Amino acid sequence: MLMATACGGGGDGGGGDVTLTIDTFGVMGYEALLEQFEEETGIAVEERNVTDTADYTPQLQQNIAAGSGAGDVVAIEEANIAQFLAQDDRFVDLAEHGAAEMQGDFLEWKWEQGTTPEGKIVGLGTDIGSMGMCYDTQLFEDAGLPTDREEVSALWPTWDDFISTGEEFADAETGAAFVSTIQPYFRAVTSQAGGAPFQNEEGELVLESNEDTRASYDTVVSMSDLSANLPIWSDEWNSGIQNNAFATLPCPAWMLGHIENTAGDAGAGRWDVAAVPGGSGNWGGSFLAVPEQSEHPEEAAELARFLTSPEGQLGAWNEANTLPSSPEALESDDVLEFTRPYFNDAPVGEIYATTAMELEPVYYGPDTQAVDDAFRAALESVEQGQAEPDEAWETAVAESERAAG
Description:
- The chain is of the alpha/beta class.
- 42% of the residues lie in helices and 14% in strands.
- It has helices spanning 31-41, 53-66, 81-85, 108-113, 137-142, 149-155, 159-171, 185-191, 211-221, 235-242, 255-263, 297-308, 310-320, 327-330, 333-336, 348-356, 368-383, 389-404, and strands spanning 19-25, 44-50, 73-77, 123-136, 177-179, 246-252, 271-274, 282-289.
- Helix 1 (31-41) links the parallel strand 1 (19-25) and strand 2 (44-50).
- Helix 8 (185-191) runs antiparallel to helix 9, helix 12 (297-308) crosses helix 13 (310-320) and helix 17 runs antiparallel to helix 18.
- It is globular, with a radius of gyration of 21 Å.
- The protein starts with 18 loop residues before the first strand and ends with a helix.
- The model is unreliable at 1-16 (pLDDT under 50).
């Protein structure tokens, strides 16, 4: 999809008017905002959306490396921003197009993630993946567990408590598993410690020297017996959401939309949102960048600034509940007073904004995607009984070292 271009990534529309292309993934909440931008500027915008970063990012990497095929504005997922910062010569410096004055519009760590050590602004932050824990109230009731979100939150102040709750759930024999798969928990748990869980800023892997990373791994593999063993984003995983095959799911703000769209009307009122064990954590989030190959860098930078401004982030929040990285937006009534009817009117704005302000900065190096892939395979092998935890850890470390060169 991303190989299709409009005159090299942004062609001329009718009458000589500029037409921009923006490449996005998942649900970013830009439909109404793009219409507003077109009305206010007279610049036409085409959005090319891909559902999952697993499909989106490799194609973007190819297009950036080739110098053609990318949109005028491209979304970059948090785990991959460092590798694109390392190719900053292939991106427009947004500081040259008015972005430097926006620094106060972002959480400090989010701003730093999109900026090179030399101060070049490659990416402007969009959303963040502040965490909650979604749970199926009907399955909790069937297991004899509380269903009130405050009481549920009190069940698991720590991950050990979460696992103990899962064991109690399993003993109730509801026919469902406690978690869908252990794979997504690794990034969520490692992020809670802050720092550099995978790779430091010198490019060195720290998987074995960072005790928090191994502790996170041990915590996650101890959930294996509680898992439905449904690989995340697979058709089987989505069917599990529809068929109530598992009781909990780690939920960054953007996951709410996926649950609602996948479960449909049958899931309305069944799902609710509680606090995440450990108190905070971030899973996901993205940036907008302008590739050097764009034929319209000034207009593309204007679009990126528009979408990532506090007002733009609020617009995306109102459309798709993608949690802003702007402190002004996070502290607004639009966020703090927002409740989501599908999730029993859960005060998701307050839940997510509160944890967002507590997040510890996390550095993800240029090889984070390779590390993610290695550990995803390792965790799956443990989950399926194909490897013992220590063996899978050693395999994941070796694969990460090979990929990092």
